[in-house]
Amino acid sequence: xxNSTTTTPTTMRAVIQDRYGSSEVLRLARVARPVIADxxxxxxxxxxxxxxxxxxxxTGKPYxxxxxxxxxxxxxxxxxxxxxxxxxxxGESVNTLIADPPPGAPxxxxxxxxxxFLALDKDKFAASFAADVDPDSAAFMxxxxxxxxxxxxxxxxxxxAWKTKPSWYLVATDDRMIPPPxxxxxxxxxxxxxxxxPGSHSVYVSQPGAVAGLIQKAAESVAALTR
Length: 227
Fold this sequence. Notes:
The chain is of the alpha+beta class. Helices cover 30% and strands 18% of the residues. It has nine helices and eight strands. The protein has helices at residues 52-57, 66-69, 94-97, 122-129, 135-144, 151-154, 180-189, 203-206, 208-225, and strands at 11-16, 27-32, 42-49, 82-88, 117-118, 148-149, 168-172, 193-197.
């Protein structure tokens, strides 16, 4: 009889910006995996985007702006605010969440591991990940996808924030990466305020208004609680 345990990885891959400039300053690197506190939750990110405001902040211009973000280099090198991913609970991992998919659920076109990393089949990327994004953008997303490590599947967390904090969830009803029934189940378990919109896994690209509306609603709700 053998016992097996899952060890949470201590590092993760991230696109970082450690100097000011255009998009050319971005690079892929390994960084320390953040420690999840009692008031936080782990999201296994499948995709992240930068809005135009954040993109402008990358330049560090005008110079006075650096007073808030770091004089010589960005204080926070890991950007990305708009994300699509899997809400993971305490002691759970992406592996445990996808172990028992709903009957008839679409199967993400994940290719066999290569040198310890996973990626989606480029030929099937658009249909599964970005069906409602224009073809040129979807093709670019397929070509520029960053492979994710096998250890990202097994990393588990401790205390999820949704057990003690209010949550909001945008269900993308045409998502073929995370089935909508699974999204609704995660949202219901978290007691989240739910908004549904037609959209693929790339809903933050195809439906930016719905994403921004949910963020605004969440911000207003939290602000009301602090008055």
